[in-house]
Structure formats: C-alpha cells, structure tokens
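Please describe our next protein:
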Amino acid sequence: MSAEQLPDKKGFFGPYGGQYIPDQLKDIMNDISHEYDMLREDPDFIEELQSLYRDYVGRPSPIFEAKRLTENSGGAKIYLKREDLNHSGAHKINHTLGEVLLAKHMGKKKVIAETGAGQHGVALATAAALLGLECDIYMGEVDIAKEHPNVVRMKILGAQVIPVSHGLKTLKEAVDAAFEAYVKDPITQLYAIGSVVGPHPFPMMVRDFQAIVGKESREQFLEKTGALPGHVVACVGGGSNAMGIFTGFLDDKSVNLYGVEPAGLSFKEGEHAATISKGTPGILHGFFSYLLKDEKGEPAPVYSVASGLDYPGVGPQHSYLKDIGRVNYETAGDKEAIDAFFKISRLEGIIPALESAHAVAYAMKLAASLSKDETILINLSGRGDKDIDFVVEKYGEQYGVVL
C-alpha cells in the first residue's frame, strides 16, 4: 500500500493507529473524520488554506545549502529545509491553520491543545487569533518555566495558558489534561492535536497538512541540484515534522530516511524519550503505537533537553514505517544536541530549536560517514528563540556565553 493510501478506513497503518476511546468520543471523532474527508476535496477549502500558506505563513520555505556546516562535518553536502522561517517560527503553523479552519467550518467556538516546547501552542494561538476562535493551551509547569518566551507569545495572542501540575509536569501530562477538558465538551470545541498522534483521524490529518513540507522539498531539491537528496533527516517526538517531510519521499526508494529520537542523558528509564528505538507496542491517548513502558506496563517517565520531544509515544505511521524498514530510527543525546545547537548557530548564523538540533546532530555524524558527492537534507523544523534563555543558563559557560 502506497503512502497516499494509508491509513485504512478505520485509521490503521498496518496494526498501528485506530480509535481506542469511549464510544461517545468515537462518534465525535467520526464526525471530524467525515467533515475532513469532505473539506479535503473542497476546492474552496483547499484554496483558502493554500492562500494562507502563501500569504500568511510565507511558504514555500526555502532550502539552503549549509556550506560551513558541511565543511566542518566533512563528507556529504548538508542542506536545510528552513521551516524555522515560517510565521510563528516552526512547522507547527502548517497543521494548526488546517485544524482551526476545520473547526471553523464545523461551527466550533474554541480550539484546545497541549504543548511542550510551546511551538504548537504559539501556532495554534496564532491561527485562532487570525480566524477568530477562542484558544486554551495546556502546558506542564516544567515546560512553562523552561519555555517562558513562548508562554508570553501565547498570552499576547489571546490564548489562555493553563498550567498542568501533576506527574512530571511536562508534555505527556499536558496531553492528559487537554484530553480531559475535551471530553467534558466535545461539541463546542475541537481538540487540535499537536502531532501525528491521537485517535483517528488526527495522525492522518496532521500528516496531510504537514505533507506540504515534503512536497515542496522534493520539487525544490530537484530544481536546485538536479537530483533527489540521498538522505533526509528529521527529529521525532510525536513525529509531525518528520512525517511531513518523509511523505514527499516515501515512494522514492533511492532516498534514505532517518528519524532522530532523543537519547537524553542515558537509556535508563526516565532519562530519554527514544520511543521507537527502545519501546514496545501499546496504547496511549487513544491510539496503538510504540510506547515506552515502565515495569507495570504503564507509560514510562520520559526526558529530553528538548521539551517538544519528551513524549512516551510516537505517531502510528512512524511505528509502521519502522516495522517495514522504510525509515531508519536513530538517536541523539542531550550533549550532542547542545553541541549541534551551538555549531550551526556559529557556522551558519542559524539558531535552531533544540528539537531540530537533534536532527542536526545526527546529520553531522552521518555526513562524516559519506562521500562528498552525497547529499543530506535536514528538516530544520523550528527556530531557537524559545530555547536561548534555558540554553545559556544551563550550558552557556561551557560554550563561552557569559551574561
């Protein structure tokens, strides 16, 4: 089955995905799925979304040849898909505009969501402000402190930021809290899930909205170099930016795809979030996929220096692609990501999101193992404005940044 035909009608990518939710929520999800199936074929909806991508987001985002990073790494040429240049600073705006447009067509009054690094929250608050809907964002207290600039941005945009104080107070708990709020009123509000996770149709829907990244990348790289990239690299937490760019190349067997998960501090429980690399299949937040579990079989505590990657699950299509061997899932630890953060900042003048820095870290190692006539395309999924205070406070001295 080709990429365009997945998932099946019940929302499964092979054995992964589906709707593991109460019957009353299945009815709501099926309504969303039905509405989306109609709108995705509606020329007016398509044109409205495309015009927003073009005139509001600033698409297409460019592809940039990172010559100094290439020289420093040795080996293959490194290129960057500059999703960090999108309005609101990351790839998240691609699907939040689609979700808020869908909510508006369905007559919803409010959109709600979780956020970890804050980029999905900012993007949803941005889309809600533009299209005139209320917006509630659930965010763990740890991430609120860590990602303060994005919290301020969300509030300026008119969103209500709701702190989550239970458990580890990070992304998984924020998802839990947002789901609880949604179940209380699924009629007047839409839960705008922030990645290719959750019950069907969200893994499909978010992927479809993000697929513009892969479509553009394929066309741009061919035009720029006369060939497809040999290797495409993206970070993976829930997996939306990776799924977006991978979709453009899934049927091109000559293109090697790499999803980079956070190895954190170590592979001990609670010190990483490498779900596909270290997890096993299970159910979380209404879908079946790879999952990091504790000794009781419950979702395990997770950690990453990048708030947007510390999630114990992963999108079901990623799990399927892992099983069939189409995507190589690798890891990068905190130290590697921080080193890559400073290297690309100082070699290319681009401060990346810590999430994206994981992809850069792995791509640098990959480049060194390849010949100079090979090419690597990194999806630089977001910019690092949100991370600079945290990075300088924790790592600045060792990299010569003393304020």
In short: The mean pLDDT is 96. The domain at 58-89+212-399 is CATH 3.40.50.1100 (Rossmann fold). The radius of gyration is 19 Å. The first helix runs from residue 23 to 39.
